Structure formats: C-alpha cells, structure tokens
Amino acid sequence: MTKFINPGLTQTSRRNVLRGSVLAGAAAVTGAGALANQRRSPLPRMQPPAARFIEAEAQAQVQAEPADLSGYSRVKQELVAPPFAPEHEQVATGGPKIIEIYMETTEKLMVVDEDTGASVWALTYNGSVPGPLIICHEGDMVELTMRNPVDSVMEHNIDFHASTGALGGGGLTHVFPGEETVLRWKATKPGCFTYHCAPGGAMIPYHVTHGMNGAVMVLPRDGLKDVEGNPLRYDSIAYIGEQDYYLPKDEFGDFLQYEAAGDDYADSLDAMRTLTPTHCVFNGAVGALTGENALQAKVGETVLMIHNQANRDSRPHLIGGHGNYVWETSFSDPPLTGLETWFVRGGTAMAAMYTFEQPGVYAYVNHNLIEATLLGAAAHFVVEGNWDNALMEQVVAPRTFET
Ligand SMILES: [Cu+2]
Question: Considering only 12-21, 172-181, 262-271, 318-327, which range has the smallest mean pLDDT?
C-alpha cells in the first residue's frame, strides 16, 4: 500500500511510515531516524545537511572527554505504574547518585472508554499511560536502559525535557524493535519535567498522543521549600498524566478498531489535524482515577499532585480544595500559594501541594469543564477523617421556602 501522507514532501509506504522516517526534512529538526538510517539501508536517506548535523553530534560525543563519575554512587530506582511514585528521599542523603532505571517501549491495545468502545494502540513506556514517574535530585544523573521489544512494530526514542543536549537525548536513543540503548544525563534544573517519544516528523505528535509521555521530578537536594525557605514535605504523591487522544471514527461516528499498532496512522493524522481531541483523560482512560480507582487520602495528609501534559495546555482544579503551594515552572522559584486553579503549559509537568482539611470526595479536574465531564479529564480523591464545621456547615438543609 502506498499513500501520500504528506503531499508534496515525500511518497511513502506503510513500512517506512512505521519506521518514523517519513519526513526527512522534519526528522532533521529532531534528529529522528538519523542513526537508524545508517543501520537500515531500506529507509529513506536523510537530507545531507541533516545527516551531517547528526553525524557531527555523534562524533562530538565520541571525541569529547569522558564524564567524571567520581564521587557518584549508583542506585537502582524501581519504576512503578501511575498514579504511584517510586521510592525516593525528599531530602537527599549522601553525595550525588547515578540513578539506574529501566524502560521498555511497549505497544499495547488499551480501552480508552468502556462505554463507547473507544480503544487505542497505545505506545507506552513500561506499559502505562503516562509512562512511569522518575524521581531524582538536582546534581544526580539518570541512567536509562531502554529496550524496544522484539515484537514491537515501531521505532521509539525519548526526549527528556529535564536533560541538556542532543534533543533531550532524543537524538541518541532511537531503538528499533529488538534494540536497546543506554543514555545517561545530569539533572541540572530542579522541577517537574515531561519526557516523550520523538521519532521524527509527524510521528512525534502521533507517538505523544498515543500515550508515549511521562514525567521526571528533579527535587532540590534539600527538598521543597516555601517562599521563606521553610521545608515543605508531602505524605504521598498523586501522579496524574493528562492524555489527549484523537481517535478516528467511521462515517457513523463509531470509533474505529485496528489490528495492530500503527495501522491507524493515516486516520489518526486526519483526526489530529482537527486539533480537537476525542478524549482528554487522566492516566490513560476514562475512569482510570475515579470510583474504585479513586486516589486515597486522610484529613491532615499532604499530597503532592504531579500533573503531566506533553502536548496541550491544561488547568487543574481540586474541587473543594486548593493548591496550597504550586510550582508551575521550576523548583528554583518560590511556589505560588493558595491557588484555586493552576496552569499546565502544554509540554510540561508541574506540581501542586495540598493538605486535606475535610473528609469526602474531591474531584480533581481540568477546569475546562467540557473536557472534564465530556472528554474524561476527571479524577477523585476519597478523603477519610472528621468533618470540621468551622470550615463548612450546612446551616439549613435544602427545603421548600414559603411563598
Ligand atoms: Cu515512540
């Protein structure tokens, strides 16, 4: 099957679409596919300037001095599925560390909405949407071993917004099915950062909007602080990845089903061009964090809500609560305080801290309420504890008034 996916640019077939190297020019922007092209001759050749750019980058690394790793100790971080966070220290002890993590680029069919039958061949890190939360401290190094399973269809890589150089590592981590790579980068900026797949051209938003994104939290070595420098500590983390999906429909408005990852590529591009998502969900699917899957807390507990959105702006609001401390950007800057709704710039992760004061069910929503209620961007916190009438009391229950 041959299609013009991008009229006027290049003719392509399903095979090289799946390789992510369709748009030689666009790929050059991200460096995507360059190293892969050197390994796999059937792929379209990079345009000479792009190839030179990538080769120069690779050469620069080879010719540079080796990194001085003295003074670092090595630790393994076991990554866990969202909404949970890996074991970590809020205040770093000892010297800087090389934190070893492992990810697989798993492609899997996931139900997005049971009620409508919407599903997606999700492209994932470690099988979850979002990918796992990684936590380190400023000055640590993250050393990722990333493996693309043999039975994958696609090429993948990873761009860490927290890192410096080589397109966030995207230019150095392209792995075809059956390949693995190891990337080490230093966490120099404290804050929450997104990471995502970026294999080149239109494959970048295709992979990102199929779930291939997640977050890194780089804590200050001495932990989080308020504006006066007083320590701020949390009891738990709620890691929420907001995912916009653009799922193709048939002429009757029913969601299309596909046999394998990548089969929806052309249809998805048409849906993506509308810039109108069919779903905005938390943690991969409608209801992933509500009902039986609701987040749990107790009155008096402090929760750090980490919100990742790799592609689109969002505006979280905790209904019935607040953002006591909100870091929309960096942990280097003092947190905003007492917010009703905060902002997630598309292409970032951020953090908001709240200490629950009343029991009950709190909805955590994207306060574009259409997206929250019709497209799926809602989570629940179920909070146990004793009610405080000083904060709120139903003085008169609803009753009919006399006319
Ligand atoms: Cu990918």
Answer: 12-21
pTM of the model: 0.88
Between 32 and 183, the more confident residue is: 183
Q: Is 174 a catalytic residue?
A: no
Q: Give yes or no: 156 in active site.
A: yes
Spot the catalytic one: 137, 174, 196, 380: 196
380 is catalytic: no
**Domain span holding position 46:** 2-63
Residue 63: per-residue pLDDT: 82
Residues 179 and 312 in one domain: no
Q: How far is the CA of 399 from the centre of ligand 1 (A)?
A: 57
Stated as kind and residue range, the H or E segment containing 24 is: helix 24-30
- pLDDT tens for 189-227 read 999 999 999 999 999 999 999 999 999 999 999 999 999
Q: Into how many domains does the chain fold?
A: 3
Inside any domain, residue 396: no
Label residue 53 left, alpha or beta by phi (over 0 means left) and psi (-120 to 50 means alpha).
alpha
254 φ, ψ (degrees, to nearest 5): -85, 145
Beta bridge partners of 138: none
State mean pLDDT over 233-253.
98
Choice among 340, 373, 384, 388 that is catalytic = 340
Q: Give a yes or no: residue 333 inside a domain.
A: yes
Residue 111 lies in a domain: yes
Output the CA–CA distances (angstroms, integers) from residue 378 to 35, 129, 395, in the order listed.
41, 15, 29
Phi then psi dihedrals of residue 55, to 5 deg:
-60, -40
Read off the pLDDT band of 147 (50, 70, 90).
Answer: very high
* 305 vs 322: CA distance, rounded Å: 11
Q: Which residues contact 41 (CB under 8 A, 6 or more apart)?
A: none
341 is annotated as an active-site residue: yes
**In terms of domains, do 126 and 57 share one?**
no
197 catalytically annotated: yes
Identify the active-site residue in 138, 141, 161, 173: 161
pLDDT above 60: residue 314 = yes
139 CA distance to ligand 1 middle (Å): 28
Distance from the alpha carbon of residue 156 to the mean position of ligand 1, in angstroms = 4
Residues 274 and 324 in one domain: yes
